[in-house]
């Protein structure tokens, strides 16, 4: 039995994160069912890539989402409807020594264009953005919450190294809803 389109989206979000982390020189491992209960799909470990004088290991817990939804046209933010409030509440609460980061992969609407392979390249289309939801407001909508991810939080290998350096200094910015 083949995977549903939603499961393919999920697998591509893991592949995207693994590729970005690998290129940045970091390890990435999938969470297990126990981690998933805490809103963690993957764990990124930074060994020796930070600029901190003595802390050389940092870990990030990652919640992955993928969507074919329209990211919107705002110049500074992309929008994503986070379905379900239970996981949203786990991500917005600062209850861990490790940052919990939401990564949303925006895929093209046509599934046939999500991934292209040839002898010369492997191309996974579109891009992902990250956000730290600490400090986000509680929602009264039981179905979910629209969140806004800054466009300058485009997840690239260079951005992941920058994120590692922010994390080691406990300086990853919390959530700010655009006005």
Query: What structural class do the secondary elements suggest?
Result: alpha+beta
The proportion of residues in beta strands is 25-35%
Q: Ranges with pLDDT <50 over ≥5 residues?
A: none
Morphology call? globular
Order of adjacent strands in the largest pleated sheet: 1-2-3-5-8
Find the count of extended strands (DSSP E, 2+ residues): 9
The helix content is 10-25%
- Rg is 16 Å
Number of helices: 4
Protein name: DUF4365 domain-containing protein
Organism: Chitinophaga agrisoli
InterPro entries: DUF4365 (IPR025375)
Domain DUF4365: 11-166
Keywords for this structure?
DUF4365 domain-containing protein, two-stranded antiparallel ribbon, globular, Trna Endonuclease, Chain: A, domain 1, DUF4365, 9 strands, alpha+beta
How are the secondary structure elements laid out?
Layout: H1 5-23, E1 27-30, H2 33-36, E2 42-47, E3 57-67, E4 77-83, H3 85-92, E5 99-106, E6 115-117, E7 122-124, E8 127-132, E9 144-150, H4 157-168
Parallel strand pairs: 3-5
Antiparallel strand pairs: 1-2, 2-3, 4-9, 5-8, 6-7
Organism: Chitinophaga agrisoli
InterPro entries: DUF4365 (IPR025375)
Domain DUF4365: 11-166
């Amino acid at each position: 039995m083949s995977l549903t389109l939603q499961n393919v989206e999920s697998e591509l979000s893991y592949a995207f994160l693994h590729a970005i982390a690998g290129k940045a020189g970091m390890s990435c491992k999938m969470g297990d069912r126990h981690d998933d209960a805490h809103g963690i799909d993957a764990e990124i470990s930074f060994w020796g890539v930070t600029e901190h004088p003595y802390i050389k290991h940092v870990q990030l817990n990652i919640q992955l989402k993928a969507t074919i939804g329209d990211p919107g046209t705002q110049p500074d933010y992309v929008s994503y409807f986070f379905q379900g409030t239970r996981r949203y509440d786990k991500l917005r609460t600062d209850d861990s020594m490790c940052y919990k980061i939401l990564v949303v992969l925006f895929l093209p609407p046509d599934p046939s264009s999500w991934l292209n392979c040839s002898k010369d390249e492997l191309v996974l289309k579109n891009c992902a953005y990250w956000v730290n939801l600490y400090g986000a407001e509680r929602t009264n909508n039981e179905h979910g919450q629209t969140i806004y991810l800054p466009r300058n939080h485009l997840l690239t290998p260079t951005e992941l190294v920058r994120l590692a350096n922010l994390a080691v200094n406990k300086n990853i910015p919390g959530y700010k809803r655009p006005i």
